[in-house]
Amino acid sequence: GQQLNQSPQSMFIQEGEDVSMNCTSSSIFNTWLWYKQEPGEGPVLLIALYKAGELTSNGRLTAQFGITRKDSFLNISASIPSDVGIYFCAGPRNSGGGADGLTFGKGTHLIIQP
Amino acid sequence: EAGVAQSPRYKIIEKRQSVAFWCNPISGHATLYWYQQILGQGPKLLIQFQNNGVVDDSQLPKDRFSAERLKGVDSTLKIQPAKLEDSAVYLCASSDNRGQGEKLFFGSGTQLSVL
Predict the structure, then answer these.
(1) For the residues of B77-104, what is the DSSP string, one character each?
(2) Preceding peptide of A43 cis, ω within 30°
(3) Which residue in the set B41, B104, B105 is minimally distant from A102, CB to CB?
(4) Taking CA atoms, what residue in B is nearest to A33?
(5) Radius of gyration for chain A, computed over Cα atoms and rounded to the nearest angstrom
(6) Which phi and psi (to 5°) does residue B85 adopt?
(7) Structure confidence at residue B1 (pLDDT)
(8) Could you give the CA distance from residue A20 to residue A82 in angstroms, rounded to a whole number?
(9) Higher pLDDT, B22 or B104
(10) A30–B101: do the CB atoms touch at under 8 Å?
């Protein structure tokens, strides 16, 4: 089945630093989504990407859909304490149509040191 | 707008016992999903409903897991009997359209511990 590989697994950064994480796939995706999950909560959608090469921003977050359609990255600029959480990339389980739902990577755990 | 509601928030049971989780999706959302999230992993789809019909249950361990969405609104997920490896967070999500790239809205989940 489809596999999404996220890196790094975890990041320890200082407040104010920029963050970059990426996600690669074993197969082509037509859509990439980035979610954030905080402790005790479900994932929340941050950004959705629909076209190869697309660059989309949401406040301090910027995500890009890779040209090969097998990768995506997420950048966070000037990190703040509330950015702490686990960031997941996700893509449609069935890119050929039919049943939907999402497949998720294992996540990048962002920790901000004071 | 109310979000996806799930209950209970936490459940502790012994292996071989039964357990049920409940989900109320966002009003008007036709598609409902149950995901299993094991500690340190991303969510894994168990079952997808479109209204009250099952769209995809290929990853549901049907020998012990069952789910229903009888009236196309609320849904329950049951495990009978539970095993130690079922310890996880069970997330319910809903969406209002089908097709690639649909945006899922998740509940807060039920954290299950099987002892």
Answers:
(1) EEESS--GGG-EEEEEEEES--STTPPP
(2) no
(3) B104
(4) B101
(5) 14
(6) -70, -5
(7) 66
(8) 16
(9) B22
(10) yes
Of A42, A48, A97, the CB nearest to B109: A42
For chain A, residues with pLDDT lower than 70 are 1, 95-100
Neighbour count for residue B103 (Cβ, 10 Å): 13
Q: How confident is the model over B16-31, as a mean pLDDT?
A: 94
Q: What's the token pair of residue A22? A: 């990426």
Q: Report yes or no: B38 at the A interface, CB cutoff 8 Å.
A: no
Tokens describing residue B78: 């049951």
Mean pLDDT computed over every residue of chain A: 91
**Chain A interface mutation, best of B36, B104, B111, highest count of A Cβ atoms under 10 Å:** B104
- Mean pLDDT in residue range B95-99: 70
- Using alpha carbons only, what angle is made at residue A84 by residues A81 and A91, rounded to the nearest 5 degrees? 140
